Amino acid sequence: MSLSFTYILKVVRSLFFKYSQILIKSNKVILVLCLGFLSFAQMGSAQCDVTPTLALDATDPGNCLEGLNIEVTGNCTTYRWFLNGVEIYGETSALINTGAYGNGDYKVVGTGGTFAPSDTSAVYTVLCEICGDGIDNDGDSLTDCDDPDCAAYLGCTDCDNDGVTDDSDYCLCDASLLLSLNTYGCGFPDSCEFKVTDVVTIDTSGANYDPSYITVYILADSNGVIVDTALIPEFAITTEGKYMLVAINYEDNGSISNLAIGNDLNTVTADCYDLSNALTLKVCPEEDCGDGIDNDDDGLVDCDDPDCAPVAGIDAVIACVNEDFTFTSDSTIIGATYNWTFGTDSSPATATGVGGHSVSYSTCGTKEVILNVTENGCSVSDTIYVDVIDDEKPIFTVPADVTVYLDASCDMDTTTTQIGVPTLVLDNCSPSPSVSYNNDFTELDECNTTGSFERVWTVTDDCGNDSIQIQTITVLDTISPTFTLPVDITLYVDASCAVDTTIAGAGNATAQDDNCGTTTTDYSDVVNTTPGCSSGYEVERTWTIEDDCGNSTSGLQTITVLDTISPVVTLPNDTTLYLDASCFADTTIASAGSTTVVNNCGSTTVSYSDNVGAATNCDSGYEVERTWTVTDDCGNVTSGLQTITVLDTIAPIVVFPNDTTLYVDASCFAD
Prior knowledge:
There is one protein chain. This protein is about 5% helix and about 40% strand. By secondary structure, it is mainly beta. Strands 10, 12, 13, 15, 16 and 17 form a six-stranded mixed β-sheet that branches. A hairpin with a 5-residue loop joins strand 29 and strand 30 (about 465-475). The longest helix is centred in the N-terminal third of the chain and has 19 residues, at about 15-35.
């Protein structure tokens, strides 16, 4: 018999890594010291509601080994932390862990908030023992492992009391570091967990090793001597004894040493590696049945040991009177003998072998069936009681509830092809139970004889036991009615600005038809106005035809309404105007007259343009041809011509010179 045992492997970092934590902390302190100094006077702009104070976090104060948790109060937005007067850059929250920075005087300066009397806290001094440096760092006269600060330091603990501290021991007791949790801690178990026929498998699903490194699994004896190695977490241990399992995770094969069978596990090393703690186990031989010895050290000898005792079990059966059914052992053991007795009125009464054995009973009642199995001189038996009776109803899966639809002729198909039939029809005795159904159409009382009705399915076995299940069938009418839309149409407003957009003027839906019942016709209008034209618009008329079951069909008719009637204009009369003494004539509408306009709809706009022509042989007289234009808001236009004549009828005024006498000069000339 081969068993597979699974353990959980958690590979942990090496001792080098543990010691390197101290170096990391030291380097971080050095880095902080190199970042420069900033005087508290330079932080005068920082503001808080109250003066910040420092204290250990009451919920989680921390410890010296992993760092203390110092908490600040002061209601500032953020904080600037200082160690020995040097700012710790990157620390701005209200909580700091000193594990990365070490001993010294801590202060904070608050930033943001309302001005307080002081925004700089008092000094909080951290003084912890640094484990392993040989110095009394905290001044309590206790050094390293003698100081309570180092109580959990692996260089001070020896959980298995073997004289080797846990930082150097391959057998750590911290459950979080174990290859697999077991009940034996770091010691070796006294009881047998494994047999020499077992394969021991380590579950590495939770391992934290470096996947870029090489991982080797090591099997060592109780003295730490390597007896086997493997690249897979599995060992077939064929020799009894006590063993330990260890995993090593290392960088390259060139640096590994002493990883060989026969070497001490403690001598295995590499340049860069992680070595897990040990998992311990005990491997025992198989029980030798019949020798009177507890070979596998489990406290049980020979036939009392489950390793020797055969297994007897009978598969349960359900029986009907006078029907054949089969008995079979639920285990098969090579070399074992099987003896059956089937109880009263059985045929046959007995049998040998695993089975199956075909048996029938001529009478009802409870039958005792016994199976006796013998192996290696050890015998076990199993007894079951069979009730020979058929009072079980057949079972079946009712067809799923379905929905059928009325067709174009208002008919529905309720045949089993459409509706379905029961499936998985089973009975404990009858191989082919009968299947029947009946319908109850009384619930089809909705529109067009729709609704739902129940089909009652009945399955009956040969003994009259029946099962009933109900299938619900829903009948729907989903066919929408049809109709013919009225055509799109254009209508015109009359002289009174009226237009008939009712069905009398715009047309009606026709040829309404439905597969089952009656229909109703309705429409709704959406009016879209024409920008700038108050009397012209478009009607989107949605026609809807609906039958008795709410199925509907819709269509859109477009009705365009236009105003094409131009305004009626009365022009001013032609007129003659006269230039005044200043040679001016007023040709505006105040003197020349204006139009009178009548329009059927909406507003109008009146404008005119003049064409001035000169009068013949008269510089100051002229004629104006005034073209009047009247436009309504739908763009209909009426134009007309008015003639305005401008005349100059004022004679010039002349001042004659006085009468005078002139004399000729010596040359007989007079000017």
